[in-house]
Design goal:
This protein starts with a strand and ends with a strand. Strands 2, 4, 5, 6, 9, 10 and 11 form a 7-stranded mixed beta sheet that branches. Strands 1-3-8-7 form a 4-stranded antiparallel beta sheet, with no helix packed on it. Helices cover 0% and strands 48% of the residues. The protein is mostly beta strands. It has no helices and 11 strands.
């Protein structure tokens, strides 16, 4: 049974940092991503990482966010620094069996497995 469970969300002040975690169980996937969705807006790809660690970021977070994975423990992380109010959203981790890469990997429809989301609020 595949399960993705996010944790680590909460409130932060602008300029602050938050670290999100996603525990994956049931399978070790090729590609993991973080997406976010703010009220009234479409789900947006934030960061993606492949099985050997290559990462890609949305322009809006490049240089501020860092995605990483622990293959031994089956965890995915998102370190978010220099947070801005526009980063306020529900954050979701997603996983795929396929080795997606490049900008296309930030497309939500490519992912079959999703967590329930964790809220990040920046003020």
């Amino acid at each position: 049974h595949v399960q993705l469970v996010e944790s680590g969300g909460g409130s932060a002040l602008a300029g602050g940092s938050v670290r999100l975690s996603c525990a994956a169980s049931g399978y070790t996937f090729n590609t993991y991503s973080w997406f976010r969705q703010a009220p009234g807006r479409e789900r947006e790809g934030v960061a993606v990482i492949g099985s050997v660690g290559g990462a890609r970021y949305a322009d809006s977070v490049n240089g501020r966010f860092a995605i990483s994975r622990d293959n031994a423990e089956n965890f995915l992380y998102l370190q978010m620094n220099s947070l801005q109010p526009d980063d306020t959203a529900m954050y979701y981790c997603a996983a795929s069996h396929y080795p997606y890469g490049g900008v296309i990997a930030l497309t939500a429809t490519l992912y079959r497995y999703w967590g329930q989301g964790t809220q990040v609020t920046v003020s």
